[in-house]
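Translate sequence into structure tokens.
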Amino acid sequence: MRIGLSPFATTRAAVEALAATAVAGGLDPLWLGDGLLRNPEFPTWSGAMEPFTELAWLAGRFPAAAVALGAAVLPLRDTTWTAKQAMTLDHVTGGRFTLAVAPGFWPAESAARGLDHRQRGAHLADAVAGLQAAFRGEAYEGPFVRVPAGLAPGPLTPGGPPLWLAGAEATMHRALALGVPFQASRMSPDALAPWARTWRDGGGGLLALRIRVGVAPVASGADGLDWQAVTGPAGHLVDEMARYAALGVDDLSLLPGQDDRASRETVDALVGEVLPALRSEGIVT
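Result follows.
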């Protein structure tokens, strides 16, 4: 199982310090999310920045690390420019960029872009087809999306950077139909288990999860999950991540906190205790 980290903190310097600790300790890739409007869930350096731009900065600061976006809200974005940005990061990182895309969660963001939130799944499907065509160098015209042929620079990675779908159960079924990886979010092992069975029974490939984690004296609730977070002592985090691996999760994207103290304590525990224990058990290589 691969384990990466979103270096969330309150300042630029704190983000850079967290990323440095994560990369040195083997947490790779560096992940960022995507949001449009001000939202208390995502303060400035904890998810509010334009992610392609910040990922380019992180890739330049830590050239040995992979970077990933989880997940770009495609219905809110121009598909042509998203394809160009993704292919640029593919080149900038030497082929170490992953793009996960989603239909969106917040109705206010759809409204701000003049979109019917109920149609976001259809918008996502159209935009994904446009991205795939752009990565092949082809033109695409669908009900919502139009992409010209021959976008520059073209991908470095044959076929384009890895493209995943992220979201709820309907998006998982869409990923199965398309034969692309799927990233779930905010799910305890018990909640994820039936999804994982459906995924494997349907012939799905790479299965990923994006979730908050935190170190705390006492483990989180009975199902292992507080809102968007698995929390507890380092040993509890090891046990929960081992449970995810047993379900077939291939990639974990961790959000360690939104303030400097919580993020620092969590990243230190992940690098100093959790990852070594998972490596010793053969869960993380």
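Note: The mean pLDDT is 94.
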